[in-house]
Amino acid sequence: MTTQSSKAQELTKNYPLEKDVLTIDGIIKAFYEVVSGEAGEKRQWERDSSIHDPNAIYSYLDNVNGELKQVTMSLKDFHKETDAMIMETAFYESEINREMRLFGNIAHVWSTYETRLVKNGPVARRGINSIQLFFDKEKWSIVSLIFERERAEKIPKTFEPN
C-alpha cells in the first residue's frame, strides 16, 4: 500500500528533472512536452508541477457572451480542466518563436505557439504564452502564465518565426 508520504517522496526523488529546470530552454521545452499527447493519454502532471512554483497561476482570455474575460486558476485547476479536454481530443502544442527578457533572477518569455489536434497534422490554432519565471536555489520555476489565442487580431510580425 502506498501512502501519501511515500508518494510525495517518490515525486521528490524523480522530479524535477535537471534538464527541465537548469535552463530556460529546458523549462520551456518541458512546458510544451507535458501537455502534448493523444486523446485519453495521461499527461505528465507530476513533471509539470515540478517546473512550476507551488503557487503558480494560469490566466487566459475567454469569450464569454461575446466579451473577452480573464480567467485565472491554480496549476491544479488547470490540470483538471485540461484532463477533461484531453479525454476527447488529441493535443499537440509546440513553440514556434520566443522572445525573452532576463534581469537577475527573473525572466519573461513570450512564446508563440501552434496547436495541432492530430500529431503532425495541420495547425488548428496559434497564440502567445506570456510566461514569468524565477531562478531560486539553482533552478528555474514558472511563477505565472497568461495566454491568448490568435483571433481576428493576428499575431504581430515581431512574434512570428524569423
What layout of secondary structure does this protein have?
Layout: H1 4-14, H2 18-21, H3 24-35, H4 45-50, E1 52-64, E2 67-74, H5 75-86, E3 92-103, E4 106-116, E5 123-136, E6 139-149
Parallel strand pairs: 1-6
Antiparallel strand pairs: 1-2, 3-4, 4-5, 5-6
Considering DSSP H and I runs of 4 or more, what fraction of the residues is helical? Answer: 25-40%
What amount of the residues lies in strands?
35-45%
Largest sheet: 6 strands, mixed
Number of strands: 6
Number of domains: 1
Walk me through what this model shows:
- This protein has helices at 4-14, 18-21, 24-35, 45-50, 75-86; strands spanning 52-64, 67-74, 92-103, 106-116, 123-136, 139-149.
- With 162 residues, it is α+β, with helices and mostly antiparallel strands.
- The protein has one domain (16-151): Nuclear Transport Factor 2, Chain: A (Roll).
- A 6-stranded mixed sheet has the order 2-1-6-5-4-3.
- Strand 4 and strand 5 form a beta hairpin.
- The chain is globular.
- The chain starts with a helix and ends in a 13-residue tail after the last strand.
